[in-house]
Amino acid sequence: QVQLVESGGGLAQPGGSLRLSCAASGSIFSIKAMRWHRQAPGKQRELVAAITSVTSGDSTNYADSVKGRFTISRDNAKNTTHLQMNSLRPEDTAVYYCCAEILVVRGLSSFLNDYWGQGTQVTVSS
After folding, report:
1. Is residue 70 packed enough to be buried (19+ CB in 10 Å), middle (13-18) or exposed (0-12)?
2. Terminal C-alpha separation, the chain
3. Are 10 and 16 in contact (CB under 8 A)?
4. CA distance 105 to 17
5. Which of 88, 96, 102, 120 fits a 20 to 30 Å CA distance from 17?
6. SS3 90
7. CA torsion 5→97→72→6, rounded to 10°?
């Protein structure tokens, strides 16, 4: 079994900062990518940031709306990813979900699937 647990959400003022963390645990052989998505009330879930393992290291990409304000990072030894969110805006208010593309090996078979956390609420308001 694989579990993802997020932490670090809460209330921030406009212009403030929050740092989200997500820890993956369980029968993990390797993690190919870790992503943060968010879903605001009445809106579709959207990709915020992603970090992917490539031959030369990690590759990151961001939604245009958060470029220059959010930074995704990962600690491969701890199967953890963080999302540093600066210069927060009211429109960043949403439930933030961590997702990891994880390779699980069982016997002679391997499975690459997306696993999701339960979500953490981020509210930006004065």
Report:
1. buried
2. 40
3. no
4. 38
5. 102
6. helix
7. -20
One-letter identity of residue 119: G
Counted residue by residue, the chain has a size of 126
Q: Which pLDDT tens digits describe the chain residue by residue (126 residues)?
A: 899 999 999 999 999 999 999 999 999 999 999 999 999 999 999 999 999 987 778 899 999 999 999 999 999 999 999 999 999 999 999 999 999 999 999 899 999 999 999 999 999 999
Whose structure tokens read 């949403």? 94
Amino acid code (one letter) for 24: A
Q: What is 28-77 written as a DSSP string?
A: -SEEEEEEEEEE-TTS--EEEEEEEEETTEEEEEE-TTTTTTEEEEEEGG
Place of tokens 């930006």: 124
